[in-house]
Design a protein that fits this description.
- The complex is a heterodimer of chains A (292) and B (266).
- By secondary structure, chain A is mostly helical.
- Chain A has 10 helices and no strands.
- Chain A has helices at 10-15, 19-48, 54-105, 112-132, 136-163, 169-190, 197-217, 223-245, 257-268, 271-282.
- In chain A, helix 2 packs parallel to helix 7, helix 2 (19-48) packs antiparallel against helix 8 and helix 3 packs antiparallel against helix 7.
- The longest helix of chain A has 52 residues, at 54-105.
- Chain A is rod-shaped, with a radius of gyration of 27 Å.
- Chain B has helices spanning 2-7, 11-35, 42-95, 102-122, 126-151, 158-182, 187-207, 214-235, 247-258.
- Chain B is mostly helical and 266 residues long.
- Helices cover 80% and strands 0% of the residues of chain B.
- Classes of the chains: A mainly alpha (292), B mainly alpha (266).
- Chains A and B meet through helix 3, helix 5, helix 6 and helix 7 of A and helix 3, helix 8 and helix 9 of B.
Chain lengths: 292, 266
């Protein structure tokens, strides 16, 4: 019943294949389509003879269909790139939020302070491991562990807020929530893809039909170089779009540097460090611009 | 009529209608061309094709921008699922700050509310959707009265403020989501696009001198019809295969079930 594990339609199942396999299958499908197109066109010629008018007509239809394809692909790419940028920003938001909670936790007295710090450190480790995980099963385990830690953080925060009379209590609780919300915003993008899978499937089907037209259009060996180049470029663009769209797969991965920096800082964890960080927060500098 | 077309007409029927319209337009174009004077010279032919390809170029741009528009709206709906789940989750966590019996009462109401919202998002039947929407409105009313009852004795505390604030945000987001799910690509645009596609098909038919190029043209039209249907599918929040995922909400409900108010300490 939980959402992470569910897949439903044919396209979704197609989407769980690794990227290289999708690329390879697409390329094979395109090659088969070109050959089919050639056979069809040869059959056609044998039966009806060659007409002078045929070639230019096919030309303008082929270019129209390639034109539409490139536009649709371009817009899908732009959306995938936007989402990629958003995810990148979300990593910064989340690690900043956790850092703030950690700093505010230092204003409580022990045992709350040390308890919160320990849980938060474990939490950062889990979140970073999730960010770096490329395996679906591991990711699901880490997501669940993160959620359990969130519950523990909130419970510890409530106990701390109730038992002491700390003036930053409300700010602390607000920031804890901000950190939890930042995590769930990221989790929603974690395992899947943001572009509807039907759009990806549509692009591939469209390319196959266009490749058939391309096959019908060409005779002899010469056009094969150009046609082949075109098909390879189209396949690469599709794989690039899918890669951009998947945070944990392929060559384009989510950027984890802010979380790694946070982990390193928490591990160092000297009191001076906290004071320096607190000073940065006081002066309104965001941690992003802080000297490394 | 328009509502029926939008909400109930099955996709295959729309697909068939759009495709037939295109094919009819090609045939019409070929017919008109044949009726007109006999042989045309090379210059005429290339002019025909130039104009047809210009028409198709513009059509491709229109289709692609409408596609982008639909995709943007889809993305907005997807993000709103996260935001609403976060808002409900925030309110739920803050409700744990309250004293009993308000704490359990609000938690219970919030859980029922989240379940209703989840069910509503996945419901494909328009009638049941309306019923669920009413139930969700009822829940909102109850949530607000429960909140008011809970904060009345502690009116001036910070806890009261934060609970009110997040409950407000929760209810607001439901309205935002409702509006986003109703914000379709304007139907005028979709109709205009269909007319434009037919004009393009007519031009293609006119530029094809004889029957022999016909089925290549048909392949192009099939691709355009496919693109058009994809736009419709993306644009419909409750129909077709392109639906926004409910992961965040599903996860929230699971979290609420697995950690009841008691798990946050006394």
């Amino acid at each position: 019943m939980t959402g992470f594990a569910a897949t439903s339609s044919f396209e979704d199942n197609l989407y769980t294949l690794p990227l290289w396999l999708i690329g390879l299958l697409t390329l094979v499908a395109l090659a088969v389509a070109v050959v089919t197109g050639r056979l069809l066109s040869r059959l056609w010629r044998r039966r009806h003879g060659v007409g002078e008018d045929d070639q230019p007509i096919q030309n303008f239809i082929l270019s129209a269909s390639l034109g539409l394809l490139s536009l649709l692909m371009g817009f899908t790419f732009s959306m995938a790139a936007d989402n990629f940028e958003d995810r990148r920003a979300m990593v910064v938001t989340e690690s900043n939020a956790i850092a703030t909670v950690y700093l505010l936790a230092q204003t409580f007295d022990d045992p709350h302070r040390s308890r919160l710090s320990t849980i938060l450190k474990a939490y950062v480790d889990t979140r970073l491991a999730l960010g770096l995980s490329r395996d679906r099963a591991t990711s699901i385990t880490l997501l669940r562990r993160g959620e359990r830690l969130q519950t523990r953080i909130w419970a510890a925060a409530l106990v701390a807020a109730r038992s002491t009379d700390n003036p930053v209590e409300a700010i602390f609780l607000n920031n804890t929530q901000a950190a939890i919300n930042a995590a769930s915003a990221r989790d929603a993008t974690r395992l899947g893809h943001q572009i509807p899978s039907r759009v990806g499937a549509f692009l591939i089907v469209y390319m196959v039909v266009t490749a058939t037209l391309l096959g019908m259009q060409t005779t002899g060996l010469k056009p094969l170089v150009m046609g082949g180049t075109l098909l390879i470029v189209l396949t690469m663009s599709t794989v690039l779009i899918l890669d951009l769209d998947r945070p944990a797969q392929g060559a384009i991965l989510e950027w984890q540097a802010p979380m790694e920096r946070l982990q390193a800082r928490l591990a160092r964890g000297t009191p001076e460090d906290f004071q320096r960080l607190a000073a940065e927060l006081d002066t309104g500098h965001t941690r992003e611009h802080a000297p490394r | 009529m328009e509502a029926w077309l939008y909400d109930e007409a099955p996709f295959w029927l729309i697909a068939l209608a759009v495709l037939l319209l295109q094919l009819g337009a090609v045939s019409l174009g070929m017919l008109v061309r044949r009726r007109r004077s006999g042989e045309r010279n090379e210059e005429d032919k290339s002019a025909d094709q130039l104009i047809s390809s210009a028409l198709l170029g513009l059509l491709a741009l229109l289709l692609a921008f409408t596609f982008a528009l639909a995709l943007d709206r889809f993305d907005a709906r997807r993000v709103l699922v996260v935001e609403e789940a976060n808002a409900i989750g925030t309110t739920w966590l803050r409700a744990q700050l309250l004293d009993e019996p308000h704490r359990s009462r609000l938690s219970r109401l919030l859980q029922g509310y989240a379940e209703t919202r989840l069910e509503l998002a996945g419901e494909r039947d328009a009638g049941r959707r309306l019923a669920l929407l009413r139930r969700s409105d009822l829940y909102q009313h109850q949530l607000w009265s429960a909140t008011a009852a809970a904060v009345r004795p502690i009116r001036d505390s910070e806890v009261a403020q934060t609970v009110i604030e997040s409950m407000n945000a929760t209810i607001d987001l439901a309205a935002t989501r409702k509006a986003a799910r109703r914000a379709h690509v304007p139907s005028r645009i979709l109709v205009a696009l269909l007319l434009y596609m037919s004009a393009g098909a007519f031009a293609v038919g006119y530029a094809i001198p004889r029957l022999r190029g016909r089925w290549i043209a048909d392949a192009l039209l099939a691709l355009m019809t496919l693109a058009y249907l994809l736009i419709l599918d993306i644009d419909h929040p409750n129909r077709g295969g392109v639906l926004e995922r409910q992961w965040p909400m599903e996860d929230l409900v699971a979290a609420m079930r697995s950690s009841p108010p008691a798990s946050f300490g006394p």
